[in-house]
Amino acid sequence: MNDYVNYMDSLEPSDEFISRLKNTKAPRRRIPVYRAASLAAALILAVGVGAGVWAMSTPGETRHNELGEPDIIIDPSQDDVYSHITPYGGGYDIVENGIVTHYTYPRLDFADASGLPSVALDYTLGERNEYTRSVTAEDVEHIFGKVWRERLGLGDEWVFYGSGLFFNSPDEANGLSFHLACDDGSTYFVELLRGYDVPSCYVLPDDSYGYTDVDGVAVQILEYAIDRSCEVSFFAGGFGYRVRICGVDNYRELAARFVGLALDELRGLDDVRYEYTTPLPAEPADPGVTITHGYDPTR
Amino acid sequence: MLSDRLENLINEHAGALYRAALSVAGNVHDAEDAVQDAYLKYLEKSPRFTDAGSAKAWLIRVTVNAALDRVRERKRHPTEELLDVYPAPDERTENIMSTILDLPANERAAVHLFYYEGYRTDEIAKILKCRPGTARSYLSRARTHLREKLKGEIEL
Questions:
Q1: Which of B77, B106, B116 is nearest residue A8 as measured by Cβ atoms?
Q2: Does 1.10.10 match the CATH number of domain B1-87?
Q3: Contact B128 A197 (CB under 8 A)
Q4: pTM of the model
Q5: Do A201 and B89 touch (CB under 8 A)?
Q6: What is B88-156's CATH topology?
């Protein structure tokens, strides 16, 4: 690996970047980290994906039918634009009442009534050899709202909000993530990643981890009672799982329910121990959950 | 003063963080963002470190995870790749670097942290927030891939 080491040794950050770093200012105000993460994710997707990728497509081609619903564009010429992007990504965003979306393949283009660029994507919705197909707000709500409310035992007050992404690459990340939210700002953020622990840049070594052992699966929990939030993460059945719940009194019950779903049996987290530690080593359990949403709006 | 400590940490570790982020993200844009995220996180959390090693480990951990997050996002935001910005000095190095950059991001991170930064697998596991067995698995898969692709060009 000497060649690698020598090459990496030659890489230095630019003076301009170092100068920029040194001018970095601390944020003026701290907000609950999970709320911030959710908002950031929503904003990144709504603004970044919308403004960025949308701009790469062909604005103005989105049409609306007689009911004001967006039609789907079939535009194979745009395939070249995306030819350098992996064709395995997918996901949905909803902002207010409009679907906001973009994707790689097949493409589903929308613009909501406000004119904001919108992104929704899921290659699994595409039919073979088709570039696009229609999807409605109801479709998206069904996939990430109804289906998951039922699976997680949540009330109807939890609605899909913000972003839902599929990652499905043969050689890298494969999984999904999505948000549910209540009107009062409570959030429920789920991530699944096949073959890997779900990475995070929000959990830090100085934080206090609790953990419990559920049938040999180390379940790690990070709890902030002050804003009624917690994060539960574990690896089982070949999947990394993480759920962040924020702003509800029964966050521990909801977290336990998620663990129960993932391990195919409802279990509590009463035996959680708190230490500065890493999770217990554990062997993956048998698969209890798949990431397939099982919903096909073409049917 | 926090700003003084920040400047010291930048002077001491920005290069290492930048290289770690480049190894994971594979492009300058995301690497710079990841490094900046780490220092922003430092300003926000103001963690206390017992020594320079723990400061570097903390910063690398935040940087690498921020870079991994960007790799997931990058599927829809392609940018100029590492070797286009920093060309390899010779064909052999270019071949090695291209093969390493073809690895999945978690494996690239493990390779860099092990071979360049010299971390043990249990330390890599803490940085990548996975179990030690998973970190060893990343390295093992990476080595197998590199041996197959480079066929004697590289010593592991």
A1: B116
A2: no
A3: yes
A4: 0.43
A5: no
A6: Arc Repressor Mutant, subunit A (1.10.10)
